[in-house]
Design brief:
Strand 1 and strand 2 form a beta hairpin. Helix 1 runs parallel beside helix 3, helix 11 runs parallel beside helix 14 and helix 13 packs across helix 14. By secondary structure, the chain is α/β, with parallel strands linked by helices. It has two domains: about 170 residues, 2-enoyl-CoA Hydratase, Chain A, domain 1, CATH 3.90.226; about 230 residues, 3-Layer(aba) Sandwich (Rossmann fold), CATH 3.40.50. About 35% of the residues lie in helices and about 25% in strands. The strands form six sheets. Strands 3-19-15-16-17-18 form a six-stranded parallel sheet, sandwiched between helices. The protein is built from 16 helices and 20 strands.
């Protein structure tokens, strides 16, 4: 019997599995990577050696209004470490700069004050000017242009009116934008709901290039890059994180060049050859990404690559914050996967329903695979309404999967389905 620790909320859940069933445990090499510097040193080193731009302190000289875009409560950006250093670097160039920290929520709910304190530290919340993006507050946005897809680009007016626009985030594989980080701070981060929805349309997400690890010809990514360039993002800072959410690398400088350098670094440590199993067990990497069902589509997309034609997928995710948004909940529980897919496929890009894209990702799997959600927080009846089975423990879920696939089923375990880039050669 082998025991594997599955990330779950702020801890782990022990999976016990007979070794005769265990076909593979797939982990990214990033989990074993050890940096030769501590977290703060990595941040300082990246800022001292930016890729393709002068130092941030140089860019800040003479700039009165500075907007620093950072991630919200659904992302594991270690801002307690990075933000104070970025703010110091800006003020080294211009001590009198009027700095606003703009929290990039996309379509997520607003980040609470308590969450801000947990993310940034009490001192920053107390002393800095912080604005939380609200994608549904039309008065907060200005129209810039049409994007390559034809979508209208509406961005937060603070970003449009500043003298220096800086972003911070972290890079990991993303299931339809290729990779996270970089340009995503602008779109979807600080765009209106209308812009986010159209960028995430059924047509865009259904494109074969809209998948994990792919940037070239990816229409979602191309819109994002175009938007960030139009906003003249002069400096971007991104980190890579290990399984413990610790900084193990940092990339700073030009919007495109530094982000691409980070993406290739992540690819080298995250890309894994898929192994097919009758049962695939994974997680959404623990908190904060496993806080709701909406976010957990990321791990489902990874698991599907290894689940063959009809393998059972088991996902460990606390869903401590519930299903996710109202639109997501209504769509996920509005019919069978086939009925929902037919409905989504007929929605024109400009009429995209908020949060429909993650329903679209789920349906790809649910049309082919039984999916068992392991959660101790989310109502199991609600999970069943969303066309999934429910369990309170990963070992209970494994027994349910054996009932479907037989006691001799081959099991593939991907402890963190978000950090792994499973790509068929």
């Amino acid at each position: 019997m082998k025991t594997i620790k599955m990330p779950y909320y702020k801890s782990t859940m022990d999976l016990h599995i007979d070794e005769k069933n265990l076909t593979a445990v797939i982990t990214a090499k990033i989990d074993k990577y050890k940096s030769n510097a501590d977290e703060e040193e990595l941040v300082y080193q990246a800022l001292a050696n930016p890729i393709g731009t002068p130092r941030l302190s140089e860019l800040a000289k003479g700039k009165e209004k500075v907007v620093l875009v950072t991630s919200d409560h659904t992302r594991a950006v270690p801002s307690k470490i990075t933000l104070p250093i970025l703010l110091k670097e800006i003020r080294n160039g211009n001590p009198d700069a009027d700095i606003t920290i703009l929290i990039a929520t996309g379509l997520h709910r607003p980040t609470t004050i308590e969450e801000q304190k947990a993310m940034f530290g009490e001192e920053i919340v107390k002393s800095e000017k912080i604005v939380v993006n609200d994608a549904f507050a039309d008065e907060d946005f200005v129209y810039i242009c049409a994007l390559p897809s034809g979508a209208g680009f509406h961005v937060h007016k603070l970003a449009a009116q500043c003298d220096l626009l800086v972003t911070e985030g972290f890079i990991e594989p993303h299931f339809f934008a290729g990779f996270s980080g970089g340009r995503k701070s602008i779109l979807p981060g600080i765009c209106s709901a209308e812009t986010v929805n159209e960028n995430h349309s059924y047509k865009a997400v259904a494109n074969p290039y809209s998948t994990g690890g792919v940037l070239k010809n990816n229409p979602v990514h191309e819109d994002m890059v175009y938007a960030a360039r139009k906003m003249n993002v002069q400096f971007t800072f991104n980190v890579a994180l290990d399984a413990g959410k610790k900084i193990i690398a940092a990339f700073a400088g030009d919007l495109i060049a530094s982000h691409e350098a980070g993406c290739e670094w992540i690819r080298a440590l995250s890309q894994c050859e898929p192994v097919t199993g009758d049962i695939v067990i994974t997680s959404n990497g623990g908190y904060p990404l496993d806080q709701n069902l909406y976010q957990t589509a990321k791990a489902v997309a990874t698991a599907q690559v290894c689940a063959g034609e009809d393998g059972v997928i088991i996902i460990c995710a606390s869903c401590v914050d519930g299903m996710g948004g109202t639109y997501f909940t209504e769509l996920m529980t509005s019919g069978t996967p086939e009925e929902i897919e037919e409905k989504l496929s007929k929605i024109p890009p400009k009429e995209t329903i908020p949060e429909q894209w993650n329903v679209q990702i789920y349906n790809r799997s649910l049309k082919k695979h039984p999916v068992i959600m392991v959660t101790t927080y989310l109502d199991h009846d609600l999970i069943r309404k969303a066309n999934m089975q429910a369990a309170s423990d990963v070992n209970e879920a494994l027994e349910m999967a054996y009932e479907i696939k037989g006691r001799n089923a081959k099991v593939v375990v991907i402890p963190d389905g978000v950090s792994v880039l499973a790509v068929k050669e």
